[in-house]
Amino acid sequence: MTSFDFPPTPNRCPDAYGPITTYNRLRCSQVAHGFFLDGKQRAKERFERQNEMAQRLEDPNLSERREQIWKHSGRLEAKYLRFLRTKEGLSNYQTIKTIGKGFFGEVRLVRKIQDGKVYALKRLVKTQMISKDQLPRVRAERDALAESDSEWVVKLYTTFQDNTSLYMLMEFLPGGDLMTMLIKYQIFSEDITRFYSAEIINAIEAVHNLGFIHRDIKPDNILLDRGGHVKLADFGLSTGFRKSHDSSYYQELLQKPPAQPDNVLRSQNRNSVNIDEISLTVSNRAQINDWRRSRRLMAYSAVGTPDYIAPELFTKQGYSFDIDWWSLGTIIYECLVGWPPFAAENPYDTYRKIVNWPHTLFFPDDVPLSPIAIHLIRSMVCNSEQRLGRNGASEIKNHPFFAGVDFSSLRNIIRAPFVPPLVSDVDTSCFPVDELPQTTTTDNNDSSSTGATGTGRVEDDQTPTPEMTLPFIGYTFKRFEKTFV
């Protein structure tokens, strides 16, 4: 028997290499892990489909159709393998309209040229992602949506890229978002608030079950589908890598002097009316809506919207899943009162109010709220140690405010209080498209994706550069079953 003598394993000397080498090693490790994880998942899914088909063919009633079913299954698997080899690109889609905009990119309503199906296409500019330290954010959003198969989370179909941008093809939710609803109706009744908050609880619970903390629960990220039911979107901050959510960042921000004094919006002379099946309370529409529109414009910038962020993210304290329940508590407050509990004219005042929440949280005397609703809000907008939901969503579901709510039947049995009156599959009447630029010419941040032809088709740039490709290796994702079945 032959023996082999191997030299001893060399000692690891991480300090002997520079930061670039260390970063590349970590990045290669992440890419390799993601590549093999995706491959393992695809193999597992194919194996499960094969077993399901084999069990189905054991049915004696299918003896005459067994060969036909087996051939059909084989054709589907062949289609799946071709699907994996097919390269996605902008030339496969026709842009219809821009329906959303943020500091790092935009969301467009597009139609796939091959089959005519309508999707929402989110575009992120690579240079912005790199210069603003957003690479972990991009991966976090991609991973969270790729791993989720929940009916409460927006569906991701595929991701692809070119030399300047990243793209996420998602389902189009024509009902708009909750912020648009609040701008339109201002204030909800407790019954309507109960419905939406119950569905948001289901959505947050689905995200937590995946092991993610969303960290950016706000009305802008709560979308409504064709039936008016809730779906959660925008997972870019879900893992906490973003620089602007580092505790030191907020410590520096809180030390800056305030630009303006506190100016919390107040409302008077409230009365109740019925609008589109929703019992709403209406007050000074101009004042509240001016504030909401300015807050929506702030969401388009790099400043962000701090109104719904838990105080743990502003301090050096640790945090856990319950920070999402703080955010939900502030949303419930806004639905019932008309503005978030810590609203102010500038971000500094909002940060300061959130950190000093025991002294700044108040309920206006002229807003009629039930004691149960006030108790729910105070149980969620409070210290983490006492916060409702810290031991799971069931704590909130069992609160008296949700007495009688069947959380398992909200989407399938209960009719939403507002069903969007859509006239076509590309109806964008529930989106603030009038506030967004609708251009088809190129700009400085989108040299490859907005060059439209006469038919509205966008063209691919065929010369990707290593600098804009290497950091995003492993970003591609395809969801076969939901795309073709």
Automatic annotation (TrEMBL):
ATP binds at residue 122. Keywords: ATP-binding, Kinase, Nucleotide-binding, Phosphoprotein, Serine/threonine-protein kinase, Transferase. Residues 439-450 have a biased composition (Low complexity). Residues 403-485 form the AGC-kinase C-terminal domain. SUPFAM superfamilies: Protein kinase-like (PK-like). GO terms for molecular function: ATP binding; protein serine/threonine kinase activity. Pfam families: Pkinase (PF00069). It catalyses: L-seryl-[protein] + ATP = O-phospho-L-seryl-[protein] + ADP + H(+); L-threonyl-[protein] + ATP = O-phospho-L-threonyl-[protein] + ADP + H(+). The keyword Transferase applies. SMART domains: S_TK_X, S_TKc. Residues 93-402 form the Protein kinase domain. It comes from the Eukaryota. The keyword Signal does not apply. Residues 434-469 are annotated as: Disordered. Its EC number is 2.7.11.1. Belongs to the protein kinase superfamily. STE Ser/Thr protein kinase family. COT1 subfamily. This is non-specific serine/threonine protein kinase. It comes from Diplogelasinospora grovesii.
